[in-house]
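Thread title: Can someone regenerate the structure for this chain?

I was given the following input by a collaborator and told the matching structure tokens would be attached. They weren't. Posting the sequence so someone can regenerate them.
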Amino acid sequence: MLKEISEFTNSIILGTALILILCGFIVFNLIMYYLKRKKHLKEQESMKKEFKAALIQTEFEVQEQTRKNLASELHDNIGQLLSLTNVTLASININEKAKTKQKIDDTLNLVTKSIKELRQLSKIIYGEQLLQQGLIPTIEQEIIWLQRNGQFLIEFINEIENTDITNTDKDLFIFRLLQESINNIIKHAEADKIIIHLKYVNDTMQLTIQDNGIGFNSTEKINEQNGLGLLNMQKRINLLKGRMHIDSIKNLGTKIIFIIPYP
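Best answer:
Regenerated them for you:
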């Protein structure tokens, strides 16, 4: 009888211990889940803040590049046209009727060209407003701007068929990555041809910029603090949870590919 009571007591103790261990295990896992979730939410919030800060910085950089383009255009093109207009008007002698008519016609032509250039500038200003016109028109406008000086032969391959697909925040980052890549080509590549390829594949936006320049060692440049701005590009790509691939061969040019989850 005492033996049976002892076995029964031991069973109760063992069962209670198992229940307590199981409860402890459940409570432990609940606590760990809560802590992990809290950490995850904190990381998400931190990433949101970082993304927002990077977005603001990118907007500023796009605007700054636009201002540089405007300043250059005003100085190099419209400034010259207006100077020529002023010189032509100043040289008019009303006593020389034949020459006066020709100079007036020349002045009108210069004024017409100036108006066209100003209209073009208004498009450049509008080009920074991605929220209103979308990624593809903005890239097309940037290409028009690049082609104006005749330094580069530029080919734009657009394989985006569904224009309803959009993400304005990511569009801004993508456009800035394009600007940074082109600035590198202008400053360092010694190229005369640029190919820009945009396509949408498997829920990703893929932007490829290729040139026929002198190339460079991409590994060394990425590791440099300010190597062609590649480190900055990599940070943007990381924020977008995307990938960046660089294929560069000395004297054979460079191809840089950005693959970004989209939208």
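The longest strand covers residues 193-201.
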